[in-house]
Design goal:
alpha/beta; Rossmann fold; 6 helices; 6-stranded parallel β-sheet; 186 residues; 20% strand; two-stranded antiparallel sheet
């Protein structure tokens, strides 16, 4: 099974890159029941605002970037969204990336590594869960939240406190259980 860690922020100078890189490295070293852990960075994928002429349910993609994104999502068994909180919500890049596709998301679990100020991105995660459930994604209750993320960033690296590492291990294990169970539906 393949776990896909998706860095959702595309903002220049973002904190999501070091946080996402830490989680990716941690998950590769502690993969649980996953055979493969991959990293997808929405900043590198450069998806423009949804520009496909057909509804995503038709899977009649005309753009190369959409075909590449569809292949990445379709080939994944579970997701971890590395999610900041912008104005109590996920970044626009998250919504755009999700809206590009429909069927490729179905019957797969999603976990969240949220970060931000005092809330640790929890409000962003709640908004993301509502959107994902409409695409038949199963959001987990187990998640990793990093309040005051800037206190854990030094020299462009994220230094996770023990509670974050423990939360990550719990979430990875639960993602593996759900991914295995949902595989029969896919």
């Amino acid at each position: 099974m393949k776990l896909n860690v998706i860095i959702t922020s595309t903002r220049p100078g973002r904190n999501g890159e070091p946080v996402g890189q830490w989680f990716f490295d941690h998950a590769k070293a502690n993969p649980g029941s996953f055979d493969e852990v991959v990293l997808s960075d929405l900043a590198e994928l450069r998806l423009p605002l949804l520009d496909e002429p057909h509804h995503p349910r038709a899977k009649n993609y005309t753009k190369g970037h959409t075909k590449k994104w569809a292949e990445i999502v379709d080939g994944s068994d579970a997701f971890v969204f590395v999610l900041p909180e912008y104005n109590y919500a996920p970044p626009p890049s998250f919504y755009n990336a999700v809206d590009y596709l429909a069927l490729e998301w179905a019957y797969k679990p999603a976990g969240f590594l949220s970060y931000g100020g005092i809330s640790g991105g929890m409000r962003s995660t709640q908004a993301a869960k509502e959107v994902l459930t409409t695409l038949k994604v199963v959001p987990l209750t187990e998640q990793v939240a990093v309040p005051m993320v800037f206190e854990h960033l030094k020299d462009d690296k994220f230094h996770a406190p023990d509670i974050v590492k423990e939360s990550a291990d719990t979430m990875i294990a639960e993602l593996g259980r759900w991914a295995g169970a949902l595989k029969t539906l896919r």
